[in-house]
Write a structure and sequence with these properties.
By secondary structure, the chain is mainly α. The chain has 4 helices and no strands.
């Protein structure tokens, strides 16, 4: 049973917290895989950044919005607007991060 103070819960928390510092590294490795130059002149990083933004949206944002929409019973037009809004935010933020990385 996962009661407060139980040994099983303590081991579970230890595993979760010991893996937490690895998350930024995993995100950086994933982003670097998407941002590799794919064209002959090596300037097609924006396509990789857009694909990374779309995949980040599909993994992190879309499931949460759809789950909340089903639970709260939101109108499907509102849900479509939220999904489109967050898709644009993720793609633009990924491209902006790609531009910021080129400046440095």
């Amino acid at each position: 049973m996962l009661a407060p103070g139980s040994p099983l819960l303590g081991r579970l928390h230890a595993k979760v917290y010991s893996g937490a510092p690895l998350a930024p590294s995993a995100i950086a490795q994933t982003a670097s895989g998407f941002l590799q130059p794919t064209s002959r002149n090596g300037r097609d990083r924006f396509g990789g950044a857009a694909v990374f933004g779309i995949s980040l949206w599909a993994v992190a944002v879309a499931p949460v919005i759809i789950e909340v929409a089903l639970f709260v019973n939101w109108h499907r037009g509102f849900v479509a607007g939220l999904l489109l809004d967050w898709l644009i935010v993720c793609v633009v933020a990924s491209i902006a991060a790609c531009l910021a990385g080129r400046v440095v």
